[in-house]
Design goal:
Elements: E1 13-14, E2 17-18, H1 20-31, H2 37-40, H3 47-56, H4 60-69, H5 74-85, H6 90-102, H7 110-119, H8 130-137, H9 142-145
Antiparallel strand pairs: 1-2
């Protein structure tokens, strides 16, 4: 996949959650026609986007509408999601973020991760998780920056 200006690493947190900011970026970029359709469009609202919305208990289309209205910051969008779907405890957010950061490492996503690593010719990189894969595939090095510890 290409390096997409304005698309955050999945490790970057908004509030207490990883990935949420990346999903917001994808929504905004897609609306502007700046998100490569071949690599990203088919999964909008699905995959990790779907998991994130499910955790927040909000419909992707409702969140998308709020994002595209352009009135709320990322932090306000997260607060909107918590208001709409119900507040989450610090522990719930920690567990969810931990799960997401480790997806693909010795779990049901390992086979898909191995396939993606091979397709993207990243066999020589220290890719351990899907988040690592996304970063390396988009030209970032999460290992050098220890992205998971931010």
């Amino acid at each position: 996949m290409p390096n997409v200006p304005g698309l955050r690493s999945p490790y970057v947190k908004v509030g207490r959650l990883v990935y949420f900011g990346r999903m917001l970026d994808k929504i905004r970029l897609h609306a502007r026609g700046a998100l490569p359709a071949a690599d990203y469009a088919a999964n909008l609202g699905k995959g990790f986007d779907g998991r994130c919305c499910s955790f927040l208990r909000v419909a992707y289309e409702d969140l998308r509408a709020q994002v595209l209205a352009g009135k709320l910051s990322d932090e306000q969008l997260l607060a909107w999601a918590f208001e709409r779907g119900g507040a989450r405890t610090d522990e719930e957010c920690e567990v969810w973020s931990g799960f997401m950061m480790k997806r693909g490492w010795r779990d049901g996503g390992a086979e898909v991760l191995a396939k993606r690593i091979k397709e993207s010719q990243l066999e020589g990189q220290p890719v351990m998780t899907m988040f690592d894969y996304l970063d390396f595939d988009e030209g970032r090095d999460p290992v050098a920056t220890k992205a998971w510890s931010s």
